[in-house]
Amino acid sequence: MRHSIVVNLGDQLEVITNGKYKSVMHRVIAQTDGTRMSLASFYNPASDAVIYPAPALVEKEETRDLYPKFVFDDYMKHYLGVKFQAKEPRFEAFKNMENTANLGQVATA
Question: Isopenicillin N synthase-like Fe(2+) 2OG dioxygenase domain spans which residues (predicted)?
Fold first, then answer.
């Protein structure tokens, strides 16, 4: 995509939006000729932040939470081991963990 800015949304925004925005697998096909500039910038929550679908979005929908609650640091530890694999099994792993953990309330700004 010539003269473009591409923004990849992360898994956390997919969860918070209850699937309205989808995260994508990062991939690039570099051209053999010419130049290319890439700039990666990450904005992550605190390591103890609990990530889950926004209640205001879920309440307006007929669907329930499609994604589990998870602690960001736990997710990152899991992600580092499987980051180049499909994202769906990552979410499933945390659904199983959610059923056995009490993540409590989350402070909001």
Answer: 2-45
Cα atoms in the 13 Å half-sphere on the side-chain side of 26: 10
Residue 78's SS3 state is helix
Q: How far apart are CA 18 and CA 53, in angstroms?
A: 5
Tokens coding 93: 């792993």
**Integer Cα distance of 74 and 46 in angstroms:** 12
Rounded Cα gap, residues 25 and 11, in angstroms: 10
What is the chain's pLDDT, residue by residue, as a tens digit (109 residues)? Answer: 778 887 777 888 889 998 888 887 767 777 788 777 777 788 889 999 999 999 888 877 666 778 888 899 988 888 888 877 777 777 777 777 665 555 555 444 3
C-alpha 55/C-alpha 108 separation (Å) is 12
Q: Tokens 């000729």, residue? A: 33
